[in-house]
C-alpha cells in the first residue's frame, strides 16, 4: 500500500517536474525574440544553453529503459529539452556577429554530441546491467546537471560588475529554481541520489540568482529609463565581454 502510494505521488511530482522543466526550457523565448528583433545577441552568453544541451542529452540517456528502467518522465522531458536547446543555439549562431564566437559554439556542440555518443556506445556495449549503467551515467549526469545550474554564474558576474540584471532574464532564474525544487522532491520518492544531489545544489544556485535580481532590479530600471529618455549608451556598448 505504501509502495503504491509512493509510486503515485512520485508520478504526480514527476509530471509537475516535467511541466516546470518545459517552462524552464521555454523561458528564454522572450530573450530570443528580443535577439531576433534586434538582429544581434548583444551581451547574451551561449554558455547556459550549451550547458543545458549536454545536460538534457545525458539525462535522456540516463532515463532510457536500457539504462535506468521506469524513468519515462526523465527521458521524455529531457529529449524535448534537447530539441529546444538546439533551436536556441542555432538562433544564437545566426545572430552572432562575431565569426570566432560562432565557430566556438559550433565546435562545442559537436564535442558534446560526440561525447554523449561515446558514453552511450561504451555503457551499452561493455556494461551489462542496468544498475551499472545507471551508476556510470548518473555520475556523469550529476556533473553536467551542476554545470547547467552553475552556467549563469558568468552572467551573475556581469550583473555584479554592471549593477544591472538586463542580461540575466528573471524567468530563466525563477524557472531554474522551481525546476530544481520539483526534481529534488521527485528524487526522494524513492531515493535517487543522481537526480537529488545536482537538483538540490541547483536550487541553491538559482536562489543566489534571484537574490541578485532583487538587489539590482530597481537599479536596472533606472539605467534603462535613463538610456531611453536621455539617449545614453547602453550596456551592450560599454560592457567588455
UniProtKB/TrEMBL annotation:
One of its GO terms (biological process) is protein homooligomerization. It is found in: Cell membrane; Endomembrane system. GO terms for molecular function: sugar transmembrane transporter activity. The chain crosses the membrane at residues 12-35, 47-67, 73-95, 107-129, 135-155, 167-189, 195-217. GO terms for cellular component: endomembrane system; plasma membrane. InterPro entries: SWEET, SWEET_rpt. Keywords: Membrane, Repeat, Sugar transport, Transmembrane, Transmembrane helix, Transport. Its main location: membrane. Pfam families: MtN3_slv (PF03083). It is a multi-pass membrane protein. Mediates both low-affinity uptake and efflux of sugar across the membrane. Belongs to the SWEET sugar transporter family. This is Bidirectional sugar transporter SWEET.
